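Support request, priority: normal
Reporter: lab tech (M.K.)
Component: structure prediction queue

Hi team, I submitted a job for Putative cytochrome-like protein P450 from Ophiobolus disseminans yesterday, and the status page still shows it as pending. I've pasted the exact input below so you can check whether something in the sequence is tripping the parser. The sequence length should be 547 residues. Please let me know if I need to resubmit or if it's stuck on your end.
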Amino acid sequence: MGYPNQQALLIISTFIIVPFLTYYITTILFHRNARSRARGKTPSTAPYYVPGIFHAFGLANTGPQKYFAQLIKEYGNFAPFYVKAGPQGLLIVREPIQVTEVLAASNAGAYIQALDKLFGLPPSALDLYNGNGVSDTVKVAFEKALVKPTQRHLTGTALVDNMETYISVLSANMNNKMFQVGTWTQIEDTWSFLQQVITRCTLESLFGTDLFKQYPGVVRDYWEFADATEGFVPGLPRYWVPSAASQVRDRLLEGLERWLKVNHSGSEFARIVDEDPTWDERKGSKLIQERDALFAGLKGIDLRGRAVELLSIMHEANSNTFPRVFWTLVELLRTPQLAKDLATRIDRYRPSQGAAYNISAITDLPLIDSLLAETTRLRVASIVAHIPSQSLKIGDHWLVPRNTPILMFSHDLALDTKAWEKARPSSVEKPLEDYWAERFILPNRSGSKANQRGQRNDASASLFSMEDLEPLNITMGRSQSLLLGKYYVRTLHAATLAILLSEFELQLCDPDLFDAVVPPVRETAFGMVKPLEKVAIRIRKHTKSGK
Ligand SMILES: *[C@@H]1O[C@H](CO)[C@@H](O)[C@H](O)[C@H]1NC(C)=O
Ligand SMILES: *[C@@H]1O[C@H](CO)[C@@H](O)[C@H](O)[C@H]1NC(C)=O
Ligand SMILES: *[C@@H]1O[C@H](CO)[C@@H](O)[C@H](O)[C@H]1NC(C)=O
Ligand SMILES: *[C@@H]1O[C@H](CO)[C@@H](O)[C@H](O)[C@H]1NC(C)=O
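Reply from support: The job had stalled in the queue. We restarted it manually and it finished. Here are the results:
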């Protein structure tokens, strides 16, 4: 009789009492360390139940996006703290000052991890990215391949040329859709519709139409890849990348390789001369051709390496632009008067039907900049990672051991009312949980009385400004590689709005239901912000025959 009872006791103590005790003790230690005024202390691990496993179950079951948000809700006031996926610890940092300190020390380590674990960069190419055992000549050639084509093609007037291509592709695509003048057409699922259209047009303007011939499923596969990998956390071991993600990733790389083999090999393709056009309908943009030719000439990069580079460009272009355009557009449509004013301002920079848009002037409209900044703040939840190669002091008290992956979340800073209020009091006149299109607009102080309160903000009487607020903007991680440069997303966002608002009339079908489709901001720490339900709009062509 006694024996089974003992066993039961043993089981109870192992599975209930030990975890309970562990939790109790780690909670006490956690708070004691957080309160301690010692200098140079190492952050503690957030309380856990099972030693050795730590937070691995929670991370796996809930997914990192939600799980980090839960931990932040519970222990956020005591950050920085470790979350441990088994033996691997990840440090969560939240205080704006500490985030700035981490970013100041950041390097390309987290980006290279993404290339390796997410994009499938071959190990032979990793040395090149890490700079291990690479000769100076190769290093210089590699830097050139990374930086030169982007500088040459995505700044100044060349950027404008590239955007005009995108605009004509997008305009043609939208006008092929049989929308009517006068009669409304209803789009039931605006997210899917715009995702399809914008991705197609972005890819066409970068890669040309031959890509779709070699790889008809590229748009669908790309979004499957993006969805499967949105929970990726640099610093977590490779087996945390879902196998579905690696499968679709390999399909994408094979498709890109097919295209490279058929259309980008032999002696012809690398001969790119100054007279070549910025864009060729079949070959795509000169930027991509030139960049790929430089990579193809590098020792250490094979066909797979070139395909990885193309996939990471595709990812940067699509994941950064489409969600921003979607949210800016639907948020704008909630305030029809503002949408109308913006359309009028855009029209000033396109004096007649058929004339080219003055894309630099449209991109510079303060309201468009403010919309982009507000969308990025509230509707884009990024994770920024840094893996310091030296131990790092943060704040007055903490010392982070080297090689610790440090994680920071853009939403964390985006919703930190105290920090915003301190940086610029007028920025929190409306709560940070709300979308406020004009949050970043300041009156032009050197302007006249024209812009006193209550009067409409006019382009000449108001300014877009991020002054004092920069430390609270970490969306892209300052030193993570920007493959497409810092102007691409901003210009493409403005160009897309210009086409949609000035060539079409758009209305939300159910403005009253809109609040219910917006995901609650504090429930996921990062990951793509998608509407919870379908958002329907109605659309018709503008009547502008007289213009
Ligand atoms: C790409 O390859 C296809 C198939 O060989 C060919 O028809 C097409 O003309 C090529 N495109 C270019 C721009 O050379
Ligand atoms: C675009 O607009 C800006 C600002 O109004 C102006 O300075 C520039 O000359 C215009 N560019 C073209 C090509 O019309
Ligand atoms: C601000 O107002 C002054 C005076 O009206 C004007 O000269 C200046 O161009 C304005 N600045 C901007 C960026 O609109
Ligand atoms: C926020 O930071 C990113 C990355 O540094 C930068 O590209 C972007 O322009 C910034 N946004 C604003 C509105 O300043």
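Residues 2-35 form the longest helix (34 residues). The radius of gyration is 26 Å. Let us know if anything else looks off. Ticket resolved.
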